[in-house]
Specification:
135 residues, alpha+beta, Ferric Hydroxamate Uptake Protein, Chain A, domain 1, three-stranded antiparallel β-sheet, 3 helices
């Protein structure tokens, strides 16, 4: 059996230990940045919001745990499948969960009982209640 460097590095069980050490280092070194990119904060700082989606007499209630700074639009995308169009003024919802704006019907948004139109810019706070209604 050979015990030179090449054997040790490439043909022994050391390669598994070496790969594990590299993986552990990468997770430690870049874990904080990765978590901040995905919005999952290591500190566990989260906020709770409630989103109600009303259509055809049905109300879906979603209790969401979100990162601070999340917009209403981002929260809606967490709770439901959203189709939208992008304009210079911002995004316009064209459908939520396969219920589309058609025949004079459209989606409206209320936050804590107040009607809003620029929901893609409004940042949520802990305890906010959002209601998306198909009218």
């Amino acid at each position: 059996m050979r015990y030179d460097f090449e054997y040790f590095l490439f043909k022994s069980d050391f390669r598994y230990m070496f790969a594990g050490l590299i993986l552990a280092f990468l997770l430690f070194a870049f874990g904080t940045q990765f978590n901040s990119i995905t919005g999952m904060m290591i500190s566990g700082e989260r906020m709770g919001v409630v989103m109600r989606i009303d259509y055809y007499g049905i109300t879906e209630v979603h209790e969401l745990s979100l990162a601070p700074g999340t917009t209403v639009f981002d929260a809606l995308k967490e709770a439901a499948y959203v189709e939208y169009e992008i304009y210079e003024e911002g995004e316009k919802i064209t459908g939520i969960d396969e219920i589309f704006n058609e025949d004079g019907h459209a989606w409206t948004c209320m936050i804590n009982g107040e009607s809003v139109t620029d929901f893609e810019k409004i940042k949520l706070r802990d305890g906010d209640e959002i209601r998306m209604t198909y009218v």
